[in-house]
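Researcher: Please predict.
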Amino acid sequence: MSSTRDISVLSSSDLCNIEALAEASLRQQDVALSKVRVYLDAGIDLEEIYLNRLVPTAHLLGSWWLSDRIGFAEVTLAIHSLQRIVYELSPQFLQGCDQKFNGYRAIFLTTPGSQHSFGTVMLSEFFKREGWTVSNASAEPADEVLRELSQQWFEVAGFSVSSDRGVEALRALILEARRTSLNPNVLFMVGGAMAELDHGLIATLGADLIGGDARDSERLAYHHVRNSKLAA
């Protein structure tokens, strides 16, 4: 569920574009948005821009922060700029999605200890485009998550796990959510940087699905929900 493209295998040209977008996002949103509009004017599909420009840029910013190239305040503002770009382009990306309502509902949550929600924002866009009704929330406090899942029907609850901080709390949350969920067959999906590094995370957390990029995560979730409905 990570919408990521490994920046270590990018071509020098792609890496140059992503570094330029990262630098622009550090300056201000309008500068970064203008670069994205250049891609659009060049005929690059918005889905391609989301998956292979914005997401790798977010990961690059994260790596710069971890290496102390930029500070926490800087990475927070830059990621916020990327999120605002997604919100700005959302009407264009979701054009016609109101005609694709599939009757399914998903909730995406940032995990305990997570500082940013860019991954869940991106997931929401791809699920909405395919006709899902989507909610977003933080996994903290846990009581609010449990109340949300116990009072509303969701086919999928997704968590983006960016680090090992909060993994134990998330495992306990998923276990309790299974007991209290209004939908006893809700599917728990995990993704993010930690899921890429540790494919055993799905078992550790007691989840049902491990996502790929935002597009593949939606397809995987739809496939499993649809099959479970047909088998019922």
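Model: The chain is about 60% helix and 10% strand.
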